[in-house]
Amino acid sequence: MKEDKLVFTAIVHREEDMFVAECPEVGTVSQDYSIEKAIENLKEATELYLEEFPIKKEEKPIMTVFEVKEHAKVSETIRS
User: Fold this and answer.
1) Which residues form the domain of 52?
2) For residue 3, is it within any domain?
3) Which of 1, 42, 55, 64 could bond to 21 as cystine, CB 3.0-4.6 Å?
4) What is the pLDDT of residues 20-40, one digit of tens each?
């Protein structure tokens, strides 16, 4: 029997020496020292979460960008 796969979004950002990966569709979060491992951990966390709290239908979040005035303070983490 073929197993259906769900597709989710991973948003990754750096916090000091770690990469933090977040799944906005279900709210799971993970981290590691490499992007690849942080995403791998996020996948595992999301699978475990969905075993306990299955979703009824897959919805993609709306993703966009926005601008702020140049004088606004931006942390070093966001710039890199």
Assistant:
1) 11-79
2) no
3) 42
4) 999 998 999 999 999 999 999
